[in-house]
Write a structure and sequence with these properties.
This protein has about 160 residues and is mainly beta. It has one domain: Lipocalin (Beta Barrel). It is about 0% helix and about 60% strand. It has no helices and ten strands. Strand 8 and strand 9 form a beta hairpin.
């Protein structure tokens, strides 16, 4: 494994997660809801994969979800999938990318409210004990982006 194979090593372990999410996405909404959660990431596939077990404590009711990542050394990219326990037979389409200059950017295509969108995950502000993640949607093929979910991770000691 070379290149970006260790991009997610920083995330190994247990985390407390503070969430901030728009109440309505792609609706010109600026009302945010904040809530807590947890995440625990382990490496898989001899270091070419990760899995994280998440608890998302939404005010309307908590749920569990799983993030799954796989690394392709040929393209030096990661693919990230999300599986939500509220709909456990549907895995979100992957976002793909890697880290450049300390920021991880991962993009992919999805459907939101019956319309095609682009999805972007970005990891930044990474230290030994903290990290920041954001999700954004683009309804216009990536010309404009609406950041609709942010998570701040704090390592559990």
């Amino acid at each position: 494994m070379t290149g970006h194979a260790h991009d997610f090593d920083f995330l190994i372990g247990k985390w407390r997660v503070h969430h901030r999410r728009l109440k309505e996405r792609l609706a010109n909404n600026r009302d945010w809801v904040e809530f807590e959660g947890t995440s625990e990431l382990t490496m898989t596939m001899g270091g070419q994969g990760t899995v994280d077990d998440n608890f998302v404590d939404l005010p309307s009711g908590g749920y569990r979800a799983m993030g799954l990542r796989g690394y392709d050394p040929k393209t030096q990219t990661w693919a990230i999938w999300w599986l939500d326990a509220r709909d456990p037979h549907r895995m979100e389409p992957p976002v793909m990318g890697n880290f450049q200059n300390g920021v991880g950017t991962f993009e992919g295509d999805d459907i939101f409210d019956g319309k095609p969108i682009k999805v972007r995950f970005q990891w930044s502000r990474i230290t030994a004990n903290s990290a920041h993640w954001e999700q954004a949607f683009s309804p216009d093929g990536g010309k404009t982006w609406e950041m609709n979910w942010a998570m701040d991770f704090t390592r559990v000691k």
